[in-house]
Design a protein that fits this description.
This protein has 12 helices and 8 strands. By secondary structure, it is of the alpha/beta class. The chain has one domain (2-233): Dihydropteroate synthase-like (TIM Barrel, Alpha-Beta Barrel).
Length: 292
């Protein structure tokens, strides 16, 4: 699976201070460390960028391109900032993101056509986030048809089903898996992507990583093309690369509906087994699921 590094994002104190002070070094180091960690794209998230949007995005893109050769994901809701970044990317970038809302169709999506960039299009529409796989499919097909009509080919479209936090809707993960499996049939050539950390949002901080790691294995098996992830989660990157095969096998057996004997497992294996059962809805989620 293609991994997009999420670590240059405005909610980080280090990043926000570096941006506001125009101190390139911490951001360049973050970018280089993400490359070393093994991700394939670098996400540059500057949020709404209400102050100096053109200069902020241009400054950031130029400084990151000085030190890394990976393609960039431009992550902002500000279309002025987005266009400033699109004009100077050396490699074909990815817009993160557009949606099926009227505002996005009018303002963000045309930028992908104008600059020939890749674009993430979420299932969000003016009615909100669809609740199941079928309604997600219906929503995204309408949006893809619109994107095609303004000259954006399927090959440039990356679809985000918008994964809800496990503590908000435990069953939503299963709907996302089903949707990811449907996508190649209903929209040939379109890629799939997801913000992986959404699933563990609200989970106790020390347990978020294992939720994300289990999910990456399951989503990989389901056919997900890419995910926006914490570049510095070494176990996640290793699992995505096919390492730790025994752990992968345990997770996939749970995905297939198998019940396993925990008595022969190590503590680490038990933790992944229990977490996989929670992620797949085989056990009810609670913040203390590893202690049960």
């Amino acid at each position: 699976m293609i991994l997009i590094g999420e670590n240059i994002q405005i909610l980080s104190k280090v990043v926000s201070e570096a941006l506001s002070g125009r101190n390139a070094l911490p951001l360049q180091e973050l970018a280089k460390e993400q490359v070393k960690a093994g991700v394939h794209w670098i996400d540059l998230n500057i949020g709404p960028a209400r102050k100096n949007p053109t200069e902020t995005m241009s400054w950031l893109v130029n400084n990151i391109q000085e030190v890394v050769d990976l393609p960039l994901v431009l992550d902002t809701t500000n279309t002025v900032a987005m266009e400033a970044g699109l004009t100077i990317c050396r490699q074909k970038p990815l817009i993160n993101s557009a949606a099926g809302t009227q505002e996005s169709k009018e303002k963000m999506m045309p930028l992908a056509q104008k600059y020939g960039s890749n674009v993430v299009i979420s299932v969000l529409n003016d009615a909100g986030i669809p609740s199941d796989a079928a309604s997600r499919a219906e929503s995204i097909m309408e949006t893809i048809d619109y994107a095609n009509s303004i000259g954006i080919p399927n090959e440039d479209i990356w679809v985000d089903p918008i994964m809800l936090p496990i503590g908000v809707s435990q069953s939503d993960f299963l709907e996302v898996i089903e949707f990811v499996g449907m996508l190649p049939d209903i929209a040939p050539g379109v890629k799939s992507t997801i913000g992986l950390s959404n699933l563990s949002n609200g989970v106790p901080r020390d347990l978020r990583h294992i939720i994300n790691q289990v999910a990456i294995v399951i989503l990989n098996k389901a056919g997900l093309y890419s995910a926006i992830v914490d570049s510095f989660d070494k176990e996640l990157v290793a699992l995505n690369a096919g390492k730790e095969q025994e752990i992968i096998d345990i997770i996939l057996k749970v995905m297939d509906g198998q019940d396993l004997d925990m008595s022969a497992m190590s503590q680490t294996e038990r933790n992944y087994y229990k977490t996989a059962r929670v992620v797949m809805g085989r056990e009810l989620y609670s913040p203390a699921w590893l202690e049960i």
